[in-house]
From TrEMBL:
This is Pyridoxamine 5'-phosphate oxidase N-terminal domain-containing protein. Residues 13-120 form the Pyridoxamine 5'-phosphate oxidase N-terminal domain. Keywords: Oxidoreductase. GO terms for cellular component: cytosol. One of its GO terms (molecular function) is oxidoreductase activity, acting on the CH-CH group of donors. The keyword Transmembrane does not apply. SUPFAM superfamilies: FMN-binding split barrel (SSF50475). It comes from Candidatus Chloroploca asiatica.
Length: 131
């Protein structure tokens, strides 16, 4: 019984945060923190970024990440939680888009439009973080 509810409660320390610091790791093991928008749905966190962004390249090589609530400039405001991240396939993106759209509304729509205009087709990806 606890197993089914545990994943949904794992990210509770992020409740109310507008941003998180997503920490990915270089091949050397060096941590690289990045402040990002995120949305939680169904016990998973969703993030969008450019396909060629450093964080995307790093998590493809090492899916272990840390996430912590933060302010807009990356000042951590709560505990860091371990997670496993992966890039979603295009057919898996709908829940990520819906969660981010619900949380950020017009700001998300405007940001993604700007990202899409500045990048080639499929230049933006969605990442899922699980406990």
């Amino acid at each position: 019984m606890a197993e089914t509810s545990a994943p949904h409660a794992y990210f509770t320390p992020l409740d109310g945060a507008e941003f998180i610091v997503l920490t990915t790791y270089r091949r050397t093991g060096a941590a690289v923190p990045t402040t990002v928008w995120f949305a939680e749905a169904g016990g998973k966190l969703y993030v969008t970024t450019g396909a060629q962004a450093g964080k995307a390249k790093r998590l493809r090589a090492n899916p272990s990440v840390l996430v912590a609530p933060s302010d807009q400039v990356g000042n951590v405001q709560g505990p860091a939680l371990q997670g496993h991240a992966r890039v979603l396939e295009p057919h898996e993106e709908a829940p990520a888009i819906a969660a981010l759209q619900q949380k950020y509304g017009a700001a998300f729509t405007n940001l993604t439009a700007q990202m899409d205009a500045a990048q080639p087709t499929r230049g933006r990806i969605y990442i899922v973080v699980t406990p």
